[in-house]
Amino acid sequence: MTDKLNWDELDFSYTEVPYRWRAYWKDGEWYKAGLETDPQLPIREAAPIVNYGQGVFEGNKAYGTKDGKVVLFRPDEFGERLNRGARRMAMPEVPVEEFVRACKEVVKANRDYVPPYGHNGAAMFIRPMLLGVGDHIQVSAAEEYLFTIYVSPVGPLYKGGLVPHNYIIDHEHDRVAADGTGNIKATANYASTLATAKKIRESGYDDVLYLDPATHTKIDEFSSANFFAIEKDTNKFVTPKSDTVLPSITKKSLLWLAENRLGLEVEEGDIKVDEFDKYAEAGAMGNAAIISPAASVTYKDDRHVFYSETEVGPVSKALYKELTAIQFGEVEAPEGWIVDVDED
User: Fold this and answer.
1) 272 included as an active-site residue
2) pLDDT digits 0-9 by tens, 137-196
3) pLDDT, tens digit, 9 for 90 and up, residues 70-88
4) Are strands 70-73 and 338-340 parallel, antiparallel or unpaired?
5) What domains lie within the chain, and their CATH numbers?
6) Regarding beta strands 20-26 and 29-36, do their DSSP bridges make them parallel or antiparallel, or are they unpaired?
7) Do residues 313 and 307 make contact, with C-beta atoms less than 8 angstroms apart?
8) What angle do CA 23, 27, 31 make, to 5 degrees?
9) The pTM is what?
10) Catalytic pick among 4, 61, 69, 185
């Protein structure tokens, strides 16, 4: 089937590949771990994931590098975050070393579907999921669990590459509840944003940005990505610090790169919705888009334009270039960030 794939024309959508990884949990232990070929999930109608949303998931990528390798980006960090979500949702943890091994095995099994280096940022998307399954009609934690990973070749989240986007703040709804599950990758966190996302895209916006649910005065995050801004006078890289924001691996990486490779001051703190004038650049950051610069953010009747509606700001551009160069093997990576799928 790979001969039918045009690597340069891939969009961010699902392509079925031959193998996925699965492991099953019951009576206190994981069993039957390995590759499977059936894309249909073995889930019963009374499963807690279906009835009560007991599930967490992750999103990472595998990259075809400049020297012909296939690598994962910080897979241990994604495994640790999955387990933080598992603890919050009363689910069994997946040992991080097993999480990384499973990611490597499923990518290797579908190696022919990993986009080669040099095709408009195309990569292999990796979706691990931990789901409450089995027949369990009560509102309580499941007694059986499924850990599964599927993969798919994908292109960039937004066609056109690194270009500015127009965002809008939803001031009528919260993404998550204060003191809720916003800081884990729980399935229900994303379902609650779908209606707004559909509405704003029909109006020409690219994504929706949410305020903190406690005071509605500070920026929290986008429907599926973290927010960042660059101060005008200092070039300081600022991103919200909030218990309702998902601790993004991309954010963690960009904070380190901004400070250690670009020499910028960095800060996790409050970004007030009425103080956009302080910032020269802003945008979204996450695994899917890496960086999606903001041309504008609209809040109620006010549309604030950042660096440019047509050009990407210099700091956003430099950070995007540095991180993607690491992922595709063009520059040396910080220790532990890159894992070759063929190495033990």
Assistant:
1) no
2) 999 999 999 999 999 999 988 877 899 999 999 999 999 999 999 999 999 999 999 999
3) 999 999 999 999 999 999 9
4) antiparallel
5) 2-154 (3.30.470.10), 165-327 (3.20.10.10)
6) antiparallel
7) yes
8) 25
9) 0.96
10) 185
